[in-house]
Write a structure and sequence with these properties.
Arc Repressor Mutant, subunit A, 5-stranded mixed sheet, 4-stranded mixed sheet, 9 helices, 40% helix, alpha/beta, 3 domains, D-Maltodextrin-Binding Protein, domain 2
Length: 298
């Protein structure tokens, strides 16, 4: 049996009239009669009682009518879902992101994406850069939001969607908060909260370059992986740190942020949408396209 035969059975069961059913199905009566007879032969049971005056469902016909309607509905759903998924309009999208994407990028991106693509089921995992790159390589996630500069060698591609600059994070009671703008030389003697080189190589390398340009090396007191952890350590009074300016939007009143003067242009940092061109699905492409549209930092 095929879906066409099931559709014919349903229409005939609803009309109980071969002529009317044939008209609704845009066919003539003889082919409809032949098709129904073949369906009964395949099933091995009579579905209709035919007389010269009327057509009635048999007990077997009544018993399978509801199941036939459901079968036809789900068969049509399979086709619809497949088409929607191939166009990026439905399906599942696995997203890996670094913690700092929660500050401004994801709150700016997710509402319009959910509104535009409500049938795309989003699955999130928060991780560090290296894990996200590895997961994209292995097709464990479909798209990633990573911190740039990205120093890891990989075949993945990425597009910057949030441009940012370093600011200096200080404990709220620190004497340097009295100044509205600082230079790196101002913190030469301060305990410094650094990024772990193995987990955040991009931020670690860039901050070291900036300190080299300033003519000194920081006095590293602590190291951390996530920007949020770095800020927590600053709030706790364990030192000062360089953090993305976007992080200031969600910080507590126990930390103060100050702009830095004379930072070179290469001090630019940000967030990027990353993907693996060998595995990219349509929903991932739509996600990164919307991320570019939502980039208000340029």
């Amino acid at each position: 049996m095929d879906l066409r035969q099931l559709q014919q059975f349903i229409v005939l069961a609803e009309t109980l009239n071969f002529r009317v059913a044939a008209e609704r199905l845009f066919m003539t009566q003889p082919p409809l009669s032949v098709s129904i007879r073949k369906l009964e032969e395949e099933i091995g049971a009579k579905l209709f009682v035919r007389t010269t005056h009327d057509v009635r469902l048999t007990t077997a016909g009544e018993s399978v009518l509801d199941a036939t309607r459901k079968t036809l509905f789900y068969a049509q759903e399979v086709a619809r879902i497949a088409k929607q998924t191939s166009r990026g309009l439905s399906g599942q999208l696995r997203v890996g992101f670094v913690g700092s994407a929660k500050y401004t990028l994801l709150p700016r991106l997710l509402p319009p994406f959910r509104s535009e693509y409500p049938e795309v089921a989003l699955q999130f995992v928060e991780e560090k850069n290296g894990w996200i790159v590895d997961a994209l390589e292995a097709n464990r996630i479909d798209i990633g939001i990573v911190r740039v500069p990205l120093t890891l060698r990989s075949r993945i591609k990425y597009q910057i969607v949030e441009h940012d600059r370093f600011v200096l994070a200080l404990p709220a009671n620190h004497p340097l908060t009295a100044k509205q703008r600082l230079s790196l030389r101002d913190i030469a003697e301060e305990p410094f909260i650094h990024y772990t080189a193995s987990d955040m190589p991009g931020l670690h390398a860039l901050t070291m370059i900036l300190f080299e340009d300033a003519g000194f090396m920081p006095k590293v007191a602590q190291e951390a992986v996530q920007v949020s952890t770095v800020i927590f350590l600053v709030e706790s009074g364990l030192g000062v740190a360089l953090v993305p300016s976007a992080a200031a939007s969600n910080a507590s009143d126990r930390v103060v942020f100050r702009k830095l003067s004379r930072l070179p242009s290469r001090a630019s940092i940000g967030l990027a949408v990353a993907w693996n061109p060998h595995f990219e699905i349509a929903a991932a492409r739509r996600f990164r396209e919307m991320a570019l549209v939502c980039d208000t930092s340029r």
